Amino acid sequence: MTTTRRTLLRTSLLAPAIGALAARGARADGPLRVAFVYVAPIGDAGWTYQHELGRRAMDKALGDKVSSSYVEDVAEGADAERVIRKLATDGNQLIFTTSFGYMNPTLKVAQQFPKIYFDHATGYKRAANVGTYSARFYEGRYLAGLIAGRMSKSGIGGYVAAFPIPEVVQGINAFTLGAQSVNPKFTTKVVWTSSWFDPGKERAAADTMIAQGADIVTHHTDSTAVVQAGEEKGVYSIAYNSDMSKYGPKTCLTAVTMIWDSYYIATAKAAIEGKWQPTDVWGGIKDGMVALAPLNSVVPVEVAKDVTAKQAQIATGLLKPFQGPITDQDGKERIVKGAALTDQEILEMKWFAAGVQGKL
Amino acid sequence: MPESLPGAVALLAVLVATLRAATPLIIAGMGELIAEKSGVLNLGQEGMMLVGAAVGFIATAATGSPALGLLAAMAAGAAMALLFGVLTLTLTANQVATGLALTIFGIGLSALIGVRFVGTPIPGLATVLWPGLAHASPLWQQLLLLDPLVWFSLLLAPAAQWFLYRTRAGLIVRAVGESHDVAHALGYSVLRIRYLTTLFGGAMSGLAGAYLSLAYTPMWVENMVAGRGWIALALVVFSTWKPGWLAIGAWLFGFITIAQFEAEAAGLSVSPSLLATLPYLATIVVLVLISRDAVGLRLNAPAALGKPFRPTV
Predict the structure, then answer these.
(1) Whole domain around residue B95: which residue ranges?
(2) Domains in chain B, number
(3) Does A246 touch chain B (CB under 8 A)?
(4) CA A242 to CA B273: how far, in whole Å?
């Protein structure tokens, strides 16, 4: 079953009546009703697309035990609250809200529907019936940096980033540290677009950094524009969220991707069995939540081997991307040799590592 | 090698990027400027650009010819404008409300028709080498490769200026925008003229949208115009309906956007939030400064803008 926001809003006048009926019916023994709220259109790549893949995997794995639906392109804020409330009154029993800006709307609606389970992606506020989940994107970024450090000739990377929030800063630092682990002189240029999605701006930002000497570009924005810029200019790129190799068949080296499949399957299963808990899941390479897309054939075998080895070390915890010593841009030592940043320190990261050229 | 990049070439790269960023704003803005000069206020730019972007992309994907894509985009933009015209000119609906509705409609419609084409590869718009530079160094050639629509946008301001102030047709358009009753009394068909300018505005918006989906970032994704229609609209008003100032405003906006990226990439220590507001701030300040002259503003603003016209035989 698919719903768009438009049809949803059109029927919202009838919502109270239908909702009351549906809510009563929902407790029957039928399949678990699961709903997803997406921040963007699904498209064929990107943040929302990965969540949709997770939803489909859940449907496939649990068969007739679940019945899922989604609403795409829901703006963060007041719109989101209306949509989430509508999904709750419609009798959904488990609702995934997949964008940071849904945090407060999710909590607000959750308060009014204590019997419905909510899970909110990338947030930090939880409640008796609200859990959170996110992925350690930075582990994938470290591996991407490793590849960048080995493949770049100029030793300059270009990073198109949306907003200076910890989640993005972690990625930039991990990428830079990964690259510096093989090329200590590697620097990363950062350009902010102040928008998660503006292909034109992302493109112009990538073009600018390429003109200034970056010979590998990556992005923490939602479109494929940076990969396309690289392909056109003959400059390597590393994609984010989804495999974007078809947009840069010659130059896109890999992608840092998020795989939510197993998390959605496990959470839905827990809800069916009545074992759902308001957990705080922060999975990484070890959990299969973060992975690299297949490497481009231009990546030499020894580089690929190195990546595989480091990936295994990250999975076992032998290698930590934020392992000391790390100094920041101003020369201040953030973590001493032999120690690693704690999860809390990573979650609150508001500084750039030395070698990052940009400002927060 | 950034160190060895000559300053002139770097500057040139910024200028080329500026021209490219300003192109959709100039094309869409100039179409709207002509329409507003005839008294039609169409706030549907964003929607018409999106439909143009989607249709242009689909036509190119289907035929393999970007030229046909551009034509299809113009036709699609004009069709959206025709819808607007029927509602506001013939049925005298409120222009502001109808224009806003057109934008919302365009966002939904473009997403609907484009949904199967997300991620389809297409041949982008071919680029044109500056005359006489075929033997220049490859670096210069790389920088100077511009697509035809950028050239087109450069010619638009003088062309619009000439049309409005040097031709009889332009005079009639302005007369209709100034006072439709007088123009009607003089024997001009107000509605026919307004239909023509509205269709022209729609076609230009469609073209501007296609520039985004065929040349600037050759791809289609939902909502890819990302607010540029609104910026084009604002530029028309802030330029006090002067084609030259519209182009200058668009270039200024494009330049500061690009300069922001350049400054950040070069490692300039300025808050990114401040830099992100600069294009808007600077464009508004400059255009407000040039439109300080209240008398000139009143002379330039089409007096009948947004007012419905009911012909009284």
Answers:
(1) 7-121+137-300
(2) 1
(3) yes
(4) 28
> Across the interface, do B1 and A211 touch by the CB < 8 Å criterion?
no
**ipTM of this complex prediction, to 2 decimal places:** 0.78
Mean pLDDT of chain A: 89
Å between A164 CA and nearest CA of chain B: 8
Of A204, A223, A246, nearest to B261 by CB-CB distance is A204
pLDDT class for A196, splitting at 50, 70, 90? confident
Contact of A275 with chain B, judged by CB distance below 8 Å, is answered with: no
Task: Check pLDDT > 70 for residue B2.
Answer: no
Measured between beta carbons, the chain A residues lying within 8 angstroms of B118 are: 41, 43-44
Of A201, A212, A246, the CB nearest to B265: A212
**Is 50 exceeded by the pLDDT of residue A224?**
yes
Q: Among residues 100-119 of chain B, which lie with CB inside 8 Å of chain A? A: 108, 111, 115, 118-119
Q: Does A243 touch chain B (CB under 8 A)?
A: no
Question: Which residues 246-265 on chain B approach chain A with CB closer than 8 angstroms?
Answer: 257-258, 261-262, 264-265
Pairing of strands A290-292, A32-37: unpaired
Residue range A137-257+289-357, CATH number: 3.40.50.2300
Please compute the mean of the pLDDT values over residues B305-310 and round it to a whole number. Answer: 90
What is the Cα–Cα distance from B44 to B244, expressed in whole angstroms? 23
Residue B170 has pLDDT above 60, yes or no: yes
Question: Which residues lie below 8 Å from residue B173, measured CB to CB, with a gap of 6+?
Answer: B34, B37, B38, B164, B193, B197
Is residue A10 scored above 60 in pLDDT?
Answer: no
Phi, psi torsion values for B103, nearest 5 degrees: -65, -45
- C-beta of residue B27 within 8 angstroms of C-beta of residue B215: no
Whether A201 and B226 lie within 8 Å, measured CB to CB: yes
User: Quick one: angle between helices B45-63 and B228-238, nearest 10?
Assistant: 130
Give the CATH number for residue B247. 1.10.3470
pLDDT band at A16 (very low <50, low <70, confident <90, very high): very low
Q: What Rg do the C-alpha atoms of chain B give, in angstroms?
A: 20
> Which tokens is B144 given?
């100077």
Superfamily of domain A3-135: Response regulator (3.40.50.2300)
Interface mutation vs chain B, best among A79, A203, A221, most B CBs within 10 Å: A203
A300 touching chain B per CB within 8 A: no
Q: Is residue B130 part of a domain?
A: no
User: Strands A94-97 and A32-37, how do they pair?
Assistant: parallel
B63 touches chain A (CB under 8 A): no
**Token pair listed for A99:** 């964008």
Measure in Å the smallest separation between the Cα of B125 and chain A Cα atoms. 13
CA dist A243 → A79, A193, A214, A253, B22 (Å): 30, 22, 22, 10, 31
For B212, the closest chain A residue by CA position comes to A200
